[in-house]
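Write out this protein's structure.
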Amino acid sequence: MKYRSYLLLLFAILNTFGLQAQGLLGKKKMFTEQDTLRGSITPERIWWDLTYYHLELEVVPDKKFITGKNTITYTVLSEYQTLQVDLQAPLTISKVTQDGKELDVVSLGSAHFVQLVKKQEIGNSESIVVHYQGYPKEAINAPWDGGFSWKKDRNGNHFVATSCQGLGASVWWPCKDHMYDEVENMDISIRVPSNLMNISNGKLKKIEDHGATKTYHWTVKNPINNYGVNVNIGDYAHFSEVFEGEKGALDMDYFVLRDNLKKAKIHFKDAPKMMKAFEHWFGPYPFYEDGFKLVEVPYLGMEHQSSVTYGNQYKKGYLGRDLSGTGWGLKFDFIIVHEAGHEWFANNITNKDIADMWIHEGFTNYSESLFLDYYYGKKAASEYVIGLRSSIANQHPIIGQYDVNSEGSSDMYNKGGNLLHTLRQLLNNDEKWRGILRKMNAVFYHQTVTTVQIENFLSTEIGIDLTAVFDQYLRDVRIPILESQLQNGMLSYKWENVVKGFKMPVRIFVNEKPMWLYPTSKMQTKHFKEKNADFDVDPNFYIYTKNK
C-alpha cells in the first residue's frame, strides 16, 4: 500500500505537469528535457559544422515502411568526441559508422549521442553514416501535424508525401535537427516502386531502374534547412517552362497527378506570375541552380525548398475562400503564392530558432499583399492586408520561447504581415521600401538569422529606432490605441496600451489632407486654423483609436 501511495502521488504530480504543459491550469507552458535537446544548440551540436548530407532511402508504400541511411559530413570546429544525431520514434537507428567502423550510440529519446573513437581534430572534414529503418509517424493533419502522408489517388495508385515543419525532419530521417546550421548541399536518393515517381528537392541527376523499383537521384546545390527536404511519390505527369528572370533562365517544373494535367496547365499560370512579382519585390529567386518545382501532394501544401508542394484543389484563394473577406484573395491561388513566397522568407532567410518563425510567416503573409500590389495596385494590396486583421486573436505573443523548439502564436501570419504593412507606411516611400526588401534578401542571402538581426536591419534602413515598435507587436499582445479629442480646432492626442518608450509616428487626414502626428504616452496638442477641422486616422496603420 505504501508503494501504491507513492505511485499515486507520482502520477498526480506528472499529471499536473502535463496539464500545465497544455495550459489547462492557466499556467505557463512547461517544457521537457526532450524539448531542450531538440530546441537548443547543445554541446554535442555546436562543435561541428554541417557541410553535406547524402540521404538514401527506400520507401515501401504497401507496408508504410522505410529503410535507409544518411551520410553526414561535417567540419570539426573544436575538439569533442560526442556527436548528437536526431531521429524520432518509432524509427530506430540500426548502426552508425565512421570510416567503416561501427560506433556506440547512447540514446535519450529522440536525441542519439554517437561516441566517436577517431580523434576529432579542428579543421578536419569527417563523416558518419547513420543507418535506420521503421514505420515513420503517419501525418494526422498534414502539414500542421506532419510525418508521412500515405494516401492513394483516384486510380488506386499510392500517393505519398512528407511534411515536418515544427515537428522536425527527424520524424522521418536522421539529421542535425536544429535550424541554426543548414547543410551546404546534399544529395537525395529515393527508391520507390517502378510504377511511381519520386520528386524531391533540387535537380534530377539520374534514375536507376532495378526492375520492380526505381531510384530517383536528386542533387541540391544550395544550403537547405532540414524541414525543407521532402519526398513526394505518385503517378505524376510532368510539364515545364523556362522563366527569364533576373539571373537568367530559370527552370520551372510541375509534377501533378496524371488526371489533373490538363487543368494544372491552366491553373499553374499563377506560378510565373508569382515569380515575376516576387523578383520585383524581393530580388532574384534564391535557388536558380536548383530550379523551381510545384509538386502536387495529398495535403494543402508546404514551402519545401525548390520543391514547393501543392494541394489547393486547383482553386483560387485558400481552398476557394478569400481569407481577407475583401474579394482580392480570390484573384490568386493562395498556396502557389504563399508557399512560393517562402523561397525568399524561410528558405533563403531562415530563422535560427523556431521561436522567431514570424520571420518566415509574417513576411510571407505580407508577400500575398505585394503580389496584389504588383498586379492590381496599392489600394487592392492595402485592402487585402487590412482585411486579414479580423483573424488576429492577440492572445499570445508572436515570438515563442527560445531553445525549446517552441513556436509563437499563429498571429505571426496576419499580425506579422500587418506589422510590415505598418512599417511601409512609416517609411512613406514605396520604392525605398522595395529596395529594403531586396537588400534584406541580399544581405542575409542563404543565412540563418535571429529576429534581433532583422529588427536592427529594418530600423537602420527605415531610419527610425523601432525597438519599442517591435517589442509592442512581437513580444506583447496589446495593440496601440491612439486616444484623441478634437474641439474647436485643437487636437489632443497620446498613445495608450503601449510598452515603455513607444512613440510610433502615425499619419492622419485633416479635412482629407494628409499630415503626421508624433504621439508618445504623454498627452500632446496641435492647433488647426479651421475651427471645424475634422480628422481621420490612416487605416493602413495597425492600431486602434479612441475618441474622448
